[in-house]
Design goal:
heterotrimer; A alpha/beta (252); B mainly alpha (220); C mainly alpha (280); A: 252 residues; alpha/beta; Rossmann fold; 6-stranded mixed beta sheet; 10 helices; 10 strands; globular; C: 280 residues; mainly alpha; MetI-like fold; 2 domains
């Protein structure tokens, strides 16, 4: 299996506090990798090192290498804007822009100048909505406010918005944690579907969710990578005692 | 270690399985005793108690399903419930074989004794010993011991062959004994099957401990 | 059991008491406003006619109106907005998005101080800086004085409103590959637009009611004047003149002008709300 993202000896600091310790991990192309671990274990921080979202925090500092398609994204000449186009992100709380459904999707396409004319833009917006399994629900009200959608629909809109700029990797930070079971199931089905085209990294607190959607699972604790294995192995017979204790609920 | 809700239920599940195991051992022991001591009343008790064993099997099944559905166990917890759920019907079938032996005893006890039962009780002793050790190995999750027990099944298979040949000779020498000899042959076959079942239990013990499926694999 | 019941009864009494007291307070607050408004309306409405709205002031007894004062007020408020809104909003954006350094903190402190400065001081400041060099009072000086009053109010409300835009929205845009300036320009500002508008409206209402700074800077004028380099009439100064005059007919005109001023502010308010209403 080809590695899409290859992280080696990554350390990450918030000021003097070290949030990630010496993480080394390979993320295979077109697979779903889940990050699990207790709150504050660094899994979200780690996710955000993969598209340099942590850059917005002034005191944050990373060392080590993160290679995406063999290129170090922390190299000084990295174009962060281009990186973020390639590595899309979906957040815990759905965060549509205060615009219409159409304009929410079109935003990324517009700012990255990825369309030739109006028809092309419309086609691309439509495709993103289709890919996020939202088209049928919104096709008659593309020009209404995105805030009029339900929570689950808003989250799929955010996924569609991320898909619209044609990324290769999608990072998801607890994408279903605020959703009801049915909306959650739709997101999970979508993740499995998207895997055919994209490499997906998902942070989740819901272990059943990690078990259901991911091919590989990484377990983090106190900023360290405790175990990284095939999901099936993680949930039936993990190598590490700590992993076992965590996934069977022996500590909270 | 913190206390989890699932622990209580897993403990209950283990207790029920061990109780079933004990009942099964007792059934086997009594069935053989009813044969060797020509005690048909005891045999009838075995038949009676099999109904309880069947009930216990259902209870364990229900509890296993409940734990799977409500507690959603993972890792070792999951393997434990799966092992219990798979060992339970095996024990029930062993008990069925014991019942069949008791059945045969009731038939044979009315006839004159064919031969002194030496090999059969030894063979049954062997099987009962294996069963008890297998259940111990389940409790202690001892994979090495379980692998030992699996090897012992060969001894039972060898005994079965010996008893089989002996009984065939008796039948040839004296055709009037055929009915009784055939019954004894069945008993021997039952014991041989019990040995195989114990082997299956041991394989599940290894799964519980190591998450490895060793059944149908040449390597143990 | 009875203890529990008496507790329950006490809680109910306290609860209804609180509701009543706050309701009374709310009633007084709105009642005072209503009394003022209706009083102004009753006293002012009689003197309002088309003549009054378009005429320039005339000697007592010859009628006269506030047409030039309305134009002057509108022109100076407009100038204040053209100068004050972009600078105020720009400063607010800076403070909210990048203002966590020493410079930002200084600016914030100065803005807060400026909000508290009596407006007549702003008038004197512009008098020294603009009127004296130019050699005369002018609409330009008046508009500048109003703009200076406006800027810190707009800046601080804009900052507060922008801070209310959730970070998650900024992150979403950044994650799509948007550069920082685009995030601010077409995500943060639109999201905060309602609040910023409210802040701007408050500032406009505030400067529309200012008299003191205009006395030094725009002075007054008896004629229609559309040019910023000449002294300019304004509603507030005109009201001041009429109200301090000795004749009853002047007092009536002061009431009428006050009613017009309040109506204008209300009209602007409604118009701006309508134009910038949230579509999404």
């Amino acid at each position: 299996m080809e590695s899409k993202i290859s992280i080696s000896n990554l350390n990450f600091y918030y000021g003097k506090e070290q949030a990630l310790h010496d993480i080394t991990l390979e993320i295979p192309e077109r697979q779903v990798v889940a990050f699990i671990g207790p709150s504050g274990c660094g899994k979200s921080t780690f996710l955000r090192t993969l598209n340099r979202m942590n850059d917005t925090i002034p005191i944050a500092k990373a060392d080590g290498t993160v290679l995406i398609d063999g290129k170090d994204i922390y190299a000084p000449n990295t174009d962060v804007v281009a990186l973020r186009r390639k590595v899309g992100m979906v957040f815990q709380k759905s965060n549509p822009f205060p615009k219409s459904i159409f304009e929410n999707i079109a935003y990324g396409i517009r700012i990255n100048r990825m369309y030739e004319n109006k028809a092309d833009l419309e086609q691309k917006v439509g495709k993103a909505l289709h890919d996020a399994a939202l088209w049928d629900e919104v096709k008659d009200r593309l020009n209404t406010s995105a805030f009029g959608l339900s929570g689950g629909q808003q989250q799929r809109l955010c996924i569609a918005r991320a898909l619209a700029v044609q990324p290769e990797v999608i990072l998801m930070d607890e994408p279903a944690s605020a959703l009801d079971p049915i909306a959650t199931q739709k997101i999970e089905e979508l993740i499995v579907e998207l895997k055919k085209q994209y490499t997906i990294v998902i942070v989740t607190h819901n272990m059943q969710q990690a078990a259901r959607v991911s091919d590989r699972t990484a377990f983090f604790m106190l900023g360290k990578l405790v175990e990284y294995n095939a999901t099936q192995k993680m949930f039936t017979n993990p190598d590490e005692r700590l992993t076992e204790d965590y996934i069977t609920g022996r500590f909270g | 270690m913190e206390h989890r809700i699932i622990d209580q239920q897993l403990d209950l599940l283990r207790d029920k399985l061990l109780l079933l195991g004990g009942m099964t051992e007792k059934a086997l022991h009594r069935a053989m005793q009813s044969l060797t001591e020509r005690d048909s009343d005891l045999a009838r008790k075995v038949l009676e108690e099999d109904k309880i064993i069947n009930q216990m099997e259902l209870e364990i099944d229900r509890l296993s399903v409940e734990i799977l559905a409500l507690q959603q166990p993972a890792a070792h917890d999951l393997r434990f419930v799966i092992s219990v759920a798979k060992i339970t019907p095996i024990l029930e079938r062993i008990a069925d074989h014991a019942t069949n032996i008791a059945d045969a005893a009731i038939r044979i006890n009315d006839e004159p004794q064919l031969k002194s039962y030496i090999d059969l009780p030894a063979m049954a002793q062997n099987a009962a010993e294996m069963l008890r050790t297998a259940l111990d190995a389940f409790t202690t999750e001892d994979a090495a011991l379980s692998r030992e027990i699996i090897k012992q099944d060969q001894k039972i298979d060898a005994s079965y062959k010996r008893v089989f040949n002996e009984l065939i000779e008796i039948m040839i020498d004296n055709p009037s004994t055929t009915a009784s000899a055939a019954q004894l042959l069945f008993v021997a076959k039952h014991i041989e099957r019990i040995g195989d079942y114990v082997k299956d239990i041991c394989e599940l013990n290894v799964y519980l401990r190591e998450a490895a499926f060793i059944k149908h694999s040449p390597k143990i | 059991m009875s203890n529990k019941e008496s507790l329950h009864r006490r809680r109910k009494i306290v609860s209804s008491l609180t509701t009543t007291i706050t309701a009374v307070c709310a009633f007084f607050a709105i009642a005072v406003l209503l009394i003022i408004l209706s009083y102004i309306f009753v006293r002012g409405i009689a003197s309002i006619n088309l003549q009054f709205l378009v005429d320039t002031p005339k000697p007592v007894g010859e009628g006269g109106g506030i047409g030039n004062a309305i134009v002057g007020s509108v022109l100076m408020t407009l100038l204040a907005c053209v100068i004050g809104l972009p600078i105020g909003i720009g400063a607010g954006v800076y403070l909210a998005e990048f203002g966590e350094n020493l410079f930002g903190k200084t600016v914030r402190f100065l803005a807060d101080t400026l909000i508290g400065v009596p407006s007549i001081i702003v008038g004197i400041f512009i008098y020294t800086l603009v009127v004296l060099p130019m050699g005369r009072q002018s609409g330009l000086a008046g508009g500048l004085a109003l703009a200076i009053i406006m800027i810190p109010i707009v800046a601080r409300t804009t900052e507060e409103m922008i801070r209310l835009v959730p970070d998650s929205m900024r992150e979403a845009a950044l994650a799509l590959g948007a550069p920082q300036w685009r995030v601010t320009w077409n995500i943060v500002l639109p999201a905060a637009s309602t609040g910023i508008t409210t802040g701007a409206m408050l500032a406009i209402a505030r400067i529309s009611g200012e008299t003191a700074p205009l006395l030094f800077t725009a002075l007054n004028s008896r004629f229609y004047n559309y040019f910023y380099d000449q002294p300019m009439a304004s509603l507030t100064v005109q009201i001041y003149n009429y109200a301090t005059g000795p004749f009853d007919v002047e007092h009536k005109m002061a009431w009428a002008a006050t009613l017009i001023l309040i109506t204008l502010i209300l009209a602007i308010n409604i118009l701006v709300r309508f134009l910038t209403r949230k579509r999404f």
